[in-house]
Write a structure and sequence with these properties.
Its EC number is 5.2.1.8. By secondary structure, the chain is of the alpha+beta class. The protein contains twelve helices and eleven strands.
């Protein structure tokens, strides 16, 4: 067998492979003899089928397997000889002109790029800083109260924040349009469930009062037959209810899992949960900046084969997510090409981080993994049970190890870059800013 190599592009390689026909014939004969021991045919006992018949029946299969094995071995030998790291699978192409007594092929494939981490000095990273205090706990408890809002009937005009029960009929050019009619329809004024003009028209009406008003749908309204159209609504208010927030007392605390109903203990638990969530969000923000810095200082070309495989995996994940939501993916085709940019970024970061971890020995230490799992377990009713769950299977523990490795990378890059602390508002960090 003879091979030679050309370099058509930065990551693509081409290996020419010549396989001697004599070697192929020898391998075909060996395979047919092995088949003959077990092959079954009507009129013959197993293992007693004449070789001529075995060759006639299974010769094509044996030859194909023999050629494939020979090419694979020649490819593997050359790759190992030159120390190449193959990315993906090679594309085997038969040559148009074949030599005497031999079969000639070309194997086209990509290799992993050489990764050299760039200079991180000067890359700016802002670490958000937020101390959780009473004000943050109060805001969170208010959110929990609003999530448990009840409504009570009132004899007054509807105001912002009230829930109203209405009948309505919408007409376009005098005709009731599709979806324009409903009875006993509830909505909270100001919650955004209805268009702003519709909500404004209902404001000030009492139970039993009606109103007819004109309005126009937005040009980008999701129902195309109504987008930008002028219509007329007739609305009758049947009930007005005001929001009632639960009092922060023993019953409220018990409803949130505090067995003895002690409000002080509820506040302690809320604060502990908030501190964990704030830490998680700060880490996520810093991590995103670190990843951007690594990409900025380490420009590399990535193998197309790896990007395609990653895009395929992302598409599969999207399909599973849709199916878990009850949607049929056959009705919603998910194309891997939609994820090309995201897949390339993920592959690039994966290669950069792997090199960074290897060179700087940033692997996850057992004590780091255990500390992380213990920290995650604190938010569960039975922390020990979660600990056992993680340590029961290596695959689960590997997920925690991956998080630790990312944390190690973030810490290492932050120590090399221009990292500064910056105070951040609670609402902005938690995504509640107006």
């Amino acid at each position: 067998m003879e091979q030679n190599q050309e370099n058509p592009s930065a990551l693509e390689r081409r290996i020419d492979i010549t396989v001697a026909l004599a070697d192929i014939e020898k391998e075909v004969d060996a395979r047919l003899k092995r088949m003959a021991r077990t092959v079954k045919m009507p009129g013959f006992r197993p293992g007693k089928v004449p070789m001529k018949i075995v060759a006639q029946t299974h010769g094509g299969q044996a030859r194909g397997e023999a050629v494939g094995a020979a090419v694979e071995k020649a490819f593997g030998d050359k790759v190992r000889e030159q120390g190449l790291r193959v990315a993906g699978y090679p594309r085997i192409e038969p040559k148009a002109a074949q030599g005497e007594g031999a079969l000639e092929f070309s194997a086209v494939f990509e290799v992993y790029p050489e990764v050299t981490i760039g200079e991180l000095t000067g890359q700016k990273i802002e670490r958000p800083v937020l101390a959780v205090g009473d004000a943050e706990v109060d805001k969170t408890i208010d959110v929990l109260r609003k999530q448990r809002t009840t409504f009570s009937a009132v004899d007054r005009a509807a105001a912002d924040g009230d829930r109203v029960l209405i009948d309505f009929t919408g007409r376009k050019d005098g005709e009731v349009f599709e979806g324009g009619q409903a009875q006993d329809f509830p909505f909270v004024i100001g919650a955004g469930a209805m268009l702003k003009d519709f909500e404004t028209a209902v404001l000030g009406l009492k139970a039993g009062e009606s109103k007819t008003f004109d309005m126009s749908f937005p040009a980008d309204y999701h129902a195309q037959h109504l987008a930008g159209q002028a219509v007329q609504f007739e609305v009758t208010v049947k009930a007005v209810e005001e929001a009632v927030l639960p009092v922060v007392d023993a019953d409220f605390a018990k409803s949130l899992g505090v067995a003895d109903g002690e409000v002080a203990k509820l506040r302690e638990e809320v604060k502990a949960n908030l501190e964990r969530e704030v830490k998680r969000r700060i880490q996520a923000r810093v991590k995103e900046q670190v990843m951007e810095a690594l990409i900025a200082v380490t420009p590399i070309e990535v193998p197309k084969a790896l990007v395609q495989a990653e895009a395929q995996q992302l598409a599969e994940n999207a399909r599973r997510d849709l199916e878990m939501r009850g949607l049929k993916t056959k009705d919603i085709p998910v194309d891997p090409s939609w994820f090309g940019e995201q897949a390339e970024r993920r592959v690039k970061l994966g290669l950069i981080m792997a090199e960074l971890v290897k060179v700087n020995e940033l692997h996850a230490k057992p004590e780091q993994v255990r500390a992380l799992v213990e920290e995650m377990a604190q938010s569960y009713e039975d922390p020990a049970e979660l600990m056992r769950w993680y340590y029961a299977q290596p695959e689960r523990l590997a997920q925690a190890e991956a998080v630790v490795i990312e944390d190690n990378v973030v810490a290492w890059v932050s120590s090399k870059a221009d990292a500064t602390d910056k105070e951040v508002a609670f609402d902005e960090l938690m995504g509640n800013a107006a």
